[in-house]
Amino acid sequence: MKVAILGAGAVGLCVAAKLSKVCEVHAVSRNRHCEAVKDHGFVMTGLWGEEKYCFSCSETLPKGEKYDYIIITSKSNATRNICEQFKDYMENTPVLSLQNGIGNEEIISEYTDNVIGGMIITGFEWRHDASVHVSVQAAPLRLGNFPTGADKKVEILTGLFKSAGIDVKEEENIIGAIWGKTLYNAALNPLGAIMKVPYGQLLDENSLAIITEIVKEIFEVCKAEGITPEWETAEKYLDYLINTQIPSTAEHHSSMYQDLSVCKKTEIDFINGAIVKKGKKYGISTPVNSTLVNLIKFKENLILAK
Known about the structure:
single chain, N-(1-d-carboxylethyl)-l-norvaline Dehydrogenase, domain 2, 12 helices
């Protein structure tokens, strides 16, 4: 089995490391990480185990190679460029998105008929080049054909992840699971970035008041979009978020906070921004999500202007 992982940052390199134990893996990553992997291996610590791994890694894919699966783990704002760069490899190949937000699978579907959706809520934090700490995990990885269903290719890929020691299960309603992750990200990610706090501190009554409105707006959009999340109501999800998800990821700093800390653009357009866009499509007001989008973009402009 041969797997290519495109846009391999912290998530992708950790997935590559685990899969390298059970199949042939090639990760496409930044040169500094590739050189570090070649020089001293990839170091992973935390919940996925503590080990040093060696696997193939470069800034592009070897010419003429064919892969059984392609996995995209890049930031959402890079999805289109990655698909354009590697479209010749993607045609007729199952492509899995392990990314944040809404809209990645729709972009990928323009380049292959075999799109697999993935939902991963695990915290990956850089320690240094080619070294990542897996800090938190709120749920098992879920895989399913996009937008719904599962078949042999999903079953095989799920088995591959399981054999690599990753907690995973097949998901018939993968689009609902992806929106479920977006609920989590939209509620916590921008607030954590703006306030510069880990998720546990967002249990304050004032931030919870904001989170409640974020979630209510998303559930309205879900209903209009015909999406069925795992939770029937906003109230049931908020109970799960407050009593299960936040406690299990209490020490984690959001990816938006990490991006802004190193002067990078965030994925706000694919998370809260996607909710705002779809709200406009259906005539649904999303003032709290809109405010968060504006605040994050304001911080991006301040940082990128330096």
